[in-house]
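--- STAGE predict ---
source: upstream dedup step, 1 unique chain passed
mode: sequence only
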Amino acid sequence: MNKQNSFLSKTEILDAAEQTLRRFGPDKTSVTDVAKLLGVSHGTLYRHFPSKAALREAVTERWLEEKIIAPLIEIANTESESEAPLRQVRQYILKLIELKHSYAEEDPEMFKMYASVTAEAADLVDAHIGCIVKHLSLIISRGIEHKSIQRISEPDAMARSIFQATTGFHHPAHAYGWRNASTQEDFNFLWLLIEQGLAV
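--- STAGE serialize ---
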């Protein structure tokens, strides 16, 4: 469909870009490829996104928000007496790991682009990490309030340390090692150290 003279929404562009990225891969996809799918000139897309890099970042930002952050919000916002905060921290990290590992396998082109953009877009990465740290901090704060987690430092600092300690299990730069037979055992041992350090 030719939309040359009609309104083109950001959602339509991102949908088309995501479809094109999955078809051709992040390295070979061009703005022209996306424009062809939409039936517009590449100049039309540049009015919305000033560069290919900006378009890739926007697609990655939406993908992270919908596929990674949205499922984690539910865990962070769940406050239940039956789900101790320290167990919730573990559940949250395990869900983060599960999501990253599953998309590395099931959606390789988008995961490849995410890994590539991670190395290029510091602001996007900082915002993504900041969101995760905020979630963990919320759970940790509840644990401190319920006296089930020791207050070693400010909750934000504690959350960031836990995130950094577990980076090897969910950061795309370490994806090459996720299939190692020892991965689960390594995580269990790391979590034991974290748990013993935080438990009251």
